[in-house]
Amino acid sequence: xxxxxxxxxxxxxxxxxxxxxxxxxxxxxxxxxxxxxxxxxxxxxxxxxxxxxxxxxxxxxxxxxxxxxxxxxxxxxxxxxxxxxxxxxxxxxxxxxxxxxxxxxxxxxxxxxxxxxxxxxxxxxxxxxxxxxxxxxxxxxxxxxxxxxxxxxxxxxxxxxxxxxxxxxxxxxxxxxxxxxxxxxxxxxxxxxxxxxxxxxxxxxxxxxxxxxxxxxxxxxxxxxxxxxxxxxxxxxxxxxxxxxxxxxxxx
Length: 252
Prior knowledge:
By secondary structure, this protein is mostly helical.
Protein backbone atom coordinates (compact mmCIF):
# COMPACT_ATOMS: atom_id res chain seq x y z
CA UNK A 1 0.00 0.00 0.00
CA UNK A 2 1.42 3.38 -0.97
CA UNK A 3 1.05 6.46 1.18
CA UNK A 4 0.49 10.07 0.19
CA UNK A 5 2.76 12.70 1.71
CA UNK A 6 2.06 16.40 2.08
CA UNK A 7 4.15 18.77 -0.09
CA UNK A 8 7.04 19.30 2.34
CA UNK A 9 6.32 16.15 4.28
CA UNK A 10 7.55 14.31 1.22
CA UNK A 11 10.97 15.53 2.35
CA UNK A 12 11.99 17.50 -0.74
CA UNK A 13 9.97 15.41 -3.24
CA UNK A 14 8.45 18.04 -5.51
CA UNK A 15 10.04 21.45 -5.25
CA UNK A 16 13.18 20.60 -3.30
CA UNK A 17 13.93 17.54 -5.37
CA UNK A 18 14.13 19.72 -8.48
CA UNK A 19 15.98 22.50 -6.69
CA UNK A 20 18.74 20.64 -4.87
CA UNK A 21 19.24 17.21 -6.44
CA UNK A 22 22.57 16.70 -4.69
CA UNK A 23 20.93 16.83 -1.26
CA UNK A 24 17.73 15.08 -2.22
CA UNK A 25 16.73 11.60 -1.23
CA UNK A 26 13.37 10.07 -1.97
CA UNK A 27 11.74 9.56 1.39
CA UNK A 28 8.46 8.54 -0.21
CA UNK A 29 10.08 5.56 -1.88
CA UNK A 30 11.84 4.76 1.39
CA UNK A 31 8.62 4.83 3.38
CA UNK A 32 6.69 2.85 0.79
CA UNK A 33 9.36 0.16 0.72
CA UNK A 34 9.37 0.20 4.52
CA UNK A 35 5.61 -0.28 4.62
CA UNK A 36 5.35 -2.95 1.94
CA UNK A 37 8.37 -5.08 2.84
CA UNK A 38 8.13 -7.14 -0.33
CA UNK A 39 10.83 -9.80 -0.46
CA UNK A 40 12.65 -8.56 -3.53
CA UNK A 41 15.99 -10.05 -2.54
CA UNK A 42 17.05 -13.01 -0.48
CA UNK A 43 18.86 -10.63 1.88
CA UNK A 44 15.67 -8.89 3.02
CA UNK A 45 14.95 -9.82 6.62
CA UNK A 46 11.50 -9.89 8.14
CA UNK A 47 11.14 -7.19 10.78
CA UNK A 48 8.45 -6.95 13.43
CA UNK A 49 5.68 -4.40 13.12
CA UNK A 50 6.93 -2.65 16.26
CA UNK A 51 10.44 -2.21 14.83
CA UNK A 52 9.07 -0.82 11.58
CA UNK A 53 6.99 1.68 13.54
CA UNK A 54 9.93 2.63 15.71
CA UNK A 55 11.99 3.24 12.60
CA UNK A 56 9.22 5.40 11.17
CA UNK A 57 8.99 7.36 14.42
CA UNK A 58 12.69 8.14 14.26
CA UNK A 59 12.57 9.16 10.59
CA UNK A 60 9.35 11.20 10.75
CA UNK A 61 9.82 12.41 14.33
CA UNK A 62 12.20 12.20 17.23
CA UNK A 63 11.51 8.63 18.24
CA UNK A 64 8.78 6.94 20.28
CA UNK A 65 8.05 7.71 23.91
CA UNK A 66 8.32 4.84 26.40
CA UNK A 67 4.54 4.69 26.87
CA UNK A 68 4.05 4.35 23.08
CA UNK A 69 6.06 1.16 22.65
CA UNK A 70 3.19 -1.19 23.40
CA UNK A 71 0.86 0.69 21.05
CA UNK A 72 3.38 0.39 18.21
CA UNK A 73 2.86 -3.36 18.23
CA UNK A 74 -0.84 -3.06 17.43
CA UNK A 75 -0.98 -0.50 14.60
CA UNK A 76 0.39 -0.59 11.08
CA UNK A 77 2.99 1.90 9.77
CA UNK A 78 0.29 3.37 7.50
CA UNK A 79 -1.97 4.04 10.48
CA UNK A 80 0.94 5.50 12.42
CA UNK A 81 1.94 7.84 9.62
CA UNK A 82 -1.63 9.06 9.19
CA UNK A 83 -1.77 9.75 12.92
CA UNK A 84 1.48 11.74 12.72
CA UNK A 85 0.17 13.62 9.72
CA UNK A 86 -3.12 14.47 11.43
CA UNK A 87 -1.43 15.64 14.63
CA UNK A 88 0.91 17.91 12.68
CA UNK A 89 -1.91 19.50 10.68
CA UNK A 90 -2.78 21.72 13.66
CA UNK A 91 -1.41 25.26 13.77
CA UNK A 92 1.97 25.44 15.48
CA UNK A 93 2.02 27.34 18.76
CA UNK A 94 4.17 30.49 18.77
CA UNK A 95 7.25 30.02 20.95
CA UNK A 96 7.96 33.13 23.01
CA UNK A 97 11.11 33.31 25.17
CA UNK A 98 11.38 37.11 25.53
CA UNK A 99 10.72 38.47 29.02
CA UNK A 100 8.70 41.58 29.92
CA UNK A 101 11.82 43.78 30.06
CA UNK A 102 12.80 43.00 26.49
CA UNK A 103 9.24 43.34 25.24
CA UNK A 104 8.82 46.69 26.99
CA UNK A 105 12.11 48.01 25.66
CA UNK A 106 11.35 46.87 22.13
CA UNK A 107 7.89 48.45 22.30
CA UNK A 108 9.45 51.70 23.49
CA UNK A 109 11.93 51.68 20.63
CA UNK A 110 9.11 51.17 18.14
CA UNK A 111 6.93 53.88 19.69
CA UNK A 112 9.73 56.42 19.86
CA UNK A 113 11.13 55.54 16.46
CA UNK A 114 14.52 54.92 18.05
CA UNK A 115 17.32 52.66 16.94
CA UNK A 116 19.28 50.39 19.26
CA UNK A 117 22.40 52.51 18.74
CA UNK A 118 20.55 55.53 20.16
CA UNK A 119 20.06 53.81 23.52
CA UNK A 120 22.32 54.62 26.43
CA UNK A 121 25.46 52.52 26.43
CA UNK A 122 24.58 50.58 29.60
CA UNK A 123 21.01 50.04 28.45
CA UNK A 124 22.16 48.80 25.04
CA UNK A 125 24.64 46.41 26.66
CA UNK A 126 21.93 45.11 29.00
CA UNK A 127 19.56 44.61 26.08
CA UNK A 128 22.18 42.62 24.16
CA UNK A 129 22.97 40.42 27.17
CA UNK A 130 19.34 39.67 27.93
CA UNK A 131 18.53 39.09 24.26
CA UNK A 132 21.44 36.65 23.99
CA UNK A 133 20.14 34.74 27.03
CA UNK A 134 16.62 34.79 25.59
CA UNK A 135 17.90 33.18 22.37
CA UNK A 136 19.35 30.35 24.50
CA UNK A 137 16.04 30.06 26.30
CA UNK A 138 14.27 29.89 22.93
CA UNK A 139 16.50 26.99 21.91
CA UNK A 140 15.63 25.11 25.10
CA UNK A 141 11.94 25.94 24.72
CA UNK A 142 11.93 24.47 21.22
CA UNK A 143 13.83 21.37 22.34
CA UNK A 144 11.24 20.78 25.04
CA UNK A 145 8.53 21.19 22.43
CA UNK A 146 10.22 18.62 20.17
CA UNK A 147 10.18 16.12 23.02
CA UNK A 148 6.69 16.76 24.35
CA UNK A 149 4.66 17.83 21.31
CA UNK A 150 2.48 15.36 19.43
CA UNK A 151 3.28 17.33 16.23
CA UNK A 152 6.40 15.25 15.67
CA UNK A 153 6.32 15.35 11.88
CA UNK A 154 6.06 19.15 11.82
CA UNK A 155 8.86 19.61 14.34
CA UNK A 156 11.14 17.15 12.53
CA UNK A 157 10.66 18.99 9.23
CA UNK A 158 11.05 22.36 10.97
CA UNK A 159 14.30 21.10 12.48
CA UNK A 160 15.58 20.24 9.01
CA UNK A 161 14.52 23.55 7.43
CA UNK A 162 15.97 25.42 10.43
CA UNK A 163 19.38 24.02 9.51
CA UNK A 164 18.85 24.76 5.83
CA UNK A 165 17.88 28.40 6.39
CA UNK A 166 20.75 29.14 8.76
CA UNK A 167 20.73 32.61 10.29
CA UNK A 168 22.97 33.89 13.07
CA UNK A 169 21.30 36.74 14.90
CA UNK A 170 21.23 37.57 18.61
CA UNK A 171 17.98 39.54 18.45
CA UNK A 172 15.50 37.18 20.09
CA UNK A 173 12.50 38.84 18.42
CA UNK A 174 14.01 38.27 14.98
CA UNK A 175 14.82 34.65 15.83
CA UNK A 176 11.36 33.95 17.24
CA UNK A 177 9.75 35.28 14.09
CA UNK A 178 12.02 33.22 11.82
CA UNK A 179 11.41 30.06 13.83
CA UNK A 180 7.66 30.64 13.67
CA UNK A 181 7.80 31.14 9.89
CA UNK A 182 9.70 27.87 9.47
CA UNK A 183 7.40 25.90 11.78
CA UNK A 184 4.23 27.26 10.18
CA UNK A 185 5.44 26.41 6.65
CA UNK A 186 7.45 23.24 7.38
CA UNK A 187 4.84 20.93 5.79
CA UNK A 188 3.71 23.24 3.00
CA UNK A 189 5.10 24.52 -0.27
CA UNK A 190 8.85 25.12 -0.49
CA UNK A 191 8.13 28.20 -2.62
CA UNK A 192 5.98 29.72 0.14
CA UNK A 193 8.56 28.79 2.77
CA UNK A 194 11.38 30.40 0.77
CA UNK A 195 9.38 33.60 0.21
CA UNK A 196 8.40 33.93 3.87
CA UNK A 197 11.92 33.25 5.15
CA UNK A 198 13.31 35.76 2.64
CA UNK A 199 11.04 38.46 4.10
CA UNK A 200 11.83 37.71 7.74
CA UNK A 201 13.73 40.32 9.76
CA UNK A 202 16.34 37.77 10.88
CA UNK A 203 17.30 36.78 7.34
CA UNK A 204 17.23 40.32 5.96
CA UNK A 205 19.50 41.46 8.78
CA UNK A 206 21.80 38.43 8.57
CA UNK A 207 22.38 38.85 4.82
CA UNK A 208 22.93 42.60 4.90
CA UNK A 209 19.73 43.63 3.13
CA UNK A 210 19.81 46.83 5.21
CA UNK A 211 22.77 47.87 3.06
CA UNK A 212 20.77 47.61 -0.15
CA UNK A 213 20.61 50.87 -2.11
CA UNK A 214 18.94 51.64 -5.40
CA UNK A 215 22.16 52.47 -7.25
CA UNK A 216 24.39 50.15 -5.21
CA UNK A 217 22.53 46.88 -4.55
CA UNK A 218 24.06 44.49 -2.04
CA UNK A 219 24.33 41.14 -3.80
CA UNK A 220 24.86 39.04 -0.69
CA UNK A 221 21.18 38.34 -0.06
CA UNK A 222 20.36 37.46 -3.69
CA UNK A 223 23.45 35.23 -3.94
CA UNK A 224 22.62 33.30 -0.77
CA UNK A 225 18.97 32.83 -1.74
CA UNK A 226 19.81 31.61 -5.24
CA UNK A 227 22.91 29.53 -4.52
CA UNK A 228 22.37 28.11 -1.03
CA UNK A 229 18.69 28.29 -0.16
CA UNK A 230 17.21 27.54 -3.59
CA UNK A 231 20.09 25.36 -4.84
CA UNK A 232 20.66 27.26 -8.10
CA UNK A 233 24.39 26.89 -8.69
CA UNK A 234 24.75 28.39 -12.17
CA UNK A 235 24.82 32.03 -11.16
CA UNK A 236 25.73 35.09 -13.17
CA UNK A 237 26.69 38.50 -11.82
CA UNK A 238 23.95 40.30 -13.75
CA UNK A 239 21.31 37.93 -12.35
CA UNK A 240 22.47 38.65 -8.80
CA UNK A 241 22.25 42.38 -9.45
CA UNK A 242 18.74 42.09 -10.88
CA UNK A 243 17.64 40.06 -7.86
CA UNK A 244 19.20 42.57 -5.48
CA UNK A 245 17.41 45.45 -7.14
CA UNK A 246 14.14 43.55 -7.07
CA UNK A 247 14.53 42.86 -3.34
CA UNK A 248 15.33 46.55 -2.75
CA UNK A 249 12.12 47.59 -4.55
CA UNK A 250 10.08 45.17 -2.45
CA UNK A 251 11.36 46.79 0.72
CA UNK A 252 10.84 50.36 -0.43
